[in-house]
Write a structure and sequence with these properties.
Blueprint lengths: L5 E8 L6 E8 L2 E6 L2 E6 L3 E9 L4 E9 L5 E9 H11 L2
Antiparallel strand pairs: 1-2, 2-3, 3-4, 5-6, 6-7
């Protein structure tokens, strides 16, 4: 795969009580977003932004990632993630 071997897989949630909506896998050269029935590989340089919107209960935050897919289409995904996992994801993506 273009993004390389999976190093870590992080669950992402649709609500603050922990309903899992998918995952983001951190790879050697990018990430794989698995959500809404799709599996999208994204190279690190195709990630436009990654940030949190607000703090939630149980150590979670709302977050948004904006990226370009391999077809050069601009996409975004809103999700909830643990605060520690978002920090790890930001560090891996260089954001």
């Amino acid at each position: 795969m273009v993004v390389g071997t999976v190093k870590t897989r992080i669950p992402i949630f649709s609500d603050s009580v922990g309903t899992q909506m998918g995952s983001i896998s951190i790879c050697e050269n990018g990430i794989i977003i698995e959500a809404k029935g799709n599996k999208t590989p994204v190279l690190f340089e195709y990630i436009e932004s990654l940030g949190s919107d607000r703090q939630l209960n149980l150590g979670k935050v709302t977050a948004e990632i904006r990226y370009f897919d391999m077809g050069s289409n601009k996409n975004s995904l809103m999700f909830m993630i643990s605060d520690g996992s978002l920090s790890m994801l930001k560090k891996a993506c260089g954001k």
